[in-house]
């Protein structure tokens, strides 16, 4: 049996709206709530942002609510003709929009029918509010460093008396680099500069600078210098970053900064050992410090040389005067004692002849007795030597071998003294008077305490 179902036509409602009609009503409601001449301000936290196409697209959420699946999200569009100038103004102030940044935007509300969503077309941004946020974060960073005892730590480090070995953290070939290095090169002093090249602006600048500072601290340098040739507040944003501030604050080497700016000090300036307005001023101060030491050292040397020359002249005059007095006194003494010396010489000559004659006679007598004693002593020593020779001959190994004795050693050259010290299979080397014989032990017979032959284990 076949069963068929017939589809009955639906009953049409005369009050049902089409999609287009519904969206027209929504559009009219949005236009009535936000008239074209009135541009509202909206405050929200950036959840996502993209400007790869030249336009800027953001997703904003309320910053003070708990996030969940039902959290409202506002789609923000900022077209390229508006976003370009806004982005340049933000960069000039050192502001980068990123997820987590709370922004206040002005624009118009638009209902976009093809996607059925409400968009916010941004035309302006409250930069002062963002600058206030930067100031708050800067103050919080300085407060954290103060609380951790790091704010003035580098300032308290002792600088070398003659800081000639300098680590330079800068962009190679930049204006700041040339200004600083030019001061050192023109000084005529023996500075040694090690460059640690970095990017000094952009998102990657803070970690790059921090790594370079730590590398410089490990290079046995007297001073580390961080320079930048000036720029807008946005260009100098890296020097307010926490990684750079903490790297300077924890470094074990004094850090000088020469960051070209005319406004407030950066955080890097505050935590550094010394801060200068420009790289040129930083280089000038370093040259002045070393030159002052050199001038003081050379001045002291010149004063010592002058003092030594005067002392030598005075000593030479005193020496010449003393020589004249000594020569006169010597001649007077020689004349005075010449007669006495001649008389004493005659007396000594007479006594010396008599003493020499007496000593000659005594020496002859002692020589005769000494010869007799020497002969007797020599005879006794020869007898003792002969006795020792006979005794040594009795213990001569070669003599014992000639009598029939032998010497037995094991494979390592150790002397074998007992049958208990060997095992079957041991190789021996036996030395005779006329040669050697190598043998292998096949069996062992040891003597017990009574003289009987026993097995080795029983003897043990």
Average pLDDT, rounded to a whole number, is 81
Q: Report the order of strands and helices.
A: HEEEHEEHEHEHEHEHEHHEEEEEH
Biggest beta sheet summary: 5 strands, mixed, barrel
First CA to last CA: what distance? 116 Å
CATH topology of the domain at 136-290: Rossmann fold
| CA-atom Rg in angstroms | 55 Å
- Sheet-strand content, in percent, reads 15-25%
CATH first level of the domain at 136-290: which class? Alpha Beta
**Considering DSSP H and I runs of 4 or more, what fraction of the residues is helical?**
40-55%
Structural class: alpha/beta
Q: What is the count of β-strands?
A: 15
Backbone shape: elongated
- Give the strand order of the largest sheet, numbering strands 1, 2, ... along the chain: 1-2-3-5-4
Spans with pLDDT under 50 lasting ≥5 residues? none
Query: Based on the structure given, which CATH architecture of the domain at 136-290 is correct?
Result: 3-Layer(aba) Sandwich
Q: How many H/I helical runs?
A: 10
TL;DR of this structure?
The chain is α/β, with parallel strands linked by helices and 460 residues long.
């Amino acid at each position: 049996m076949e069963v068929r179902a017939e589809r009955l036509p639906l009953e049409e409602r005369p009050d049902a709206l089409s999609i287009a009609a519904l969206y027209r009503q929504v559009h009219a409601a949005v236009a009535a709530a936000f008239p074209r001449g009135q541009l509202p301000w909206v405050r929200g936290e950036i959840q996502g942002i993209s400007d790869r196409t030249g336009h800027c697209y953001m997703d904003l959420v309320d910053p003070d609510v708990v996030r969940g699946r039902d959290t409202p999200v506002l789609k923000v569009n900022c077209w390229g003709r508006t976003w370009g100038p806004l982005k340049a103004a933000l960069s000039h102030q050192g502001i980068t929009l990123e997820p987590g940044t709370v922004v206040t935007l002005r624009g118009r509300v638009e209902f976009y029918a093809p996607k059925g969503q409400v968009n916010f077309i941004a035309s302006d941004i409250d930069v002062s509010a963002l600058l206030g946020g930067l100031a708050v974060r800067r103050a919080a960073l300085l407060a954290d460093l103060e609380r951790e005892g790091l704010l003035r730590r580098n300032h308290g480090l002792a600088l070398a008396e003659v800081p000639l070995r300098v680590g330079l953290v800068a962009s190679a070939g930049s204006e700041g680099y040339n200004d600083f290095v030019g001061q050192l090169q023109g000084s005529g002093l023996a500075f040694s500069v090690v460059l640690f090249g970095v990017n000094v602006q952009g998102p990657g600048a803070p970690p790059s600078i921090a790594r370079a500072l730590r590398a410089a601290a490990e290079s046995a340098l007297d001073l580390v210098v961080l320079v930048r040739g000036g720029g807008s507040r946005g260009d100098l944003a890296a020097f307010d970053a926490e990684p750079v501030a903490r790297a300077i604050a924890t470094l074990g080497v004094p850090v000088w900064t020469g960051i070209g700016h005319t406004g407030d000090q950066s955080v890097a300036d505050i935590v550094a050992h010394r801060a200068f307005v420009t790289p040129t001023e930083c280089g000038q101060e370093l040259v002045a410090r070393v030159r002052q030491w050199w001038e003081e050292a050379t001045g002291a040397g010149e004063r010592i040389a002058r003092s030594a020359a005067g002392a030598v002249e005075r000593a030479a005059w005193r020496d010449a005067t003393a020589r004249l007095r000594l020569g006169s006194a010597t001649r007077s003494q020689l004349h005075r004692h010449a007669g006495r010396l001649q008389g004493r010489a005659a007396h000594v000559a007479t006594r010396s002849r008599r003493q020499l004659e007496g000593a000659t006679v005594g020496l002859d007598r002692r020589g005769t007795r000494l010869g007799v004693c020497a002969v007797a002593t020599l005879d006794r020593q020869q007898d003792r030597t002969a006795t020792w020779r006979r005794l040594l001959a009795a213990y001569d190994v070669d003599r014992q071998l000639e009598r029939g004795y032998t010497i037995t050693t094991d494979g390592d050259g150790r002397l074998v003294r007992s049958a208990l010290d060997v095992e079957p299979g041991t190789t021996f080397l036996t030395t005779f008077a006329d040669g050697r014989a190598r043998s292998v032990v096949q069996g062992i017979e040891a003597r017990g305490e009574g003289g009987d032959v026993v097995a080795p284990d029983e003897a043990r």
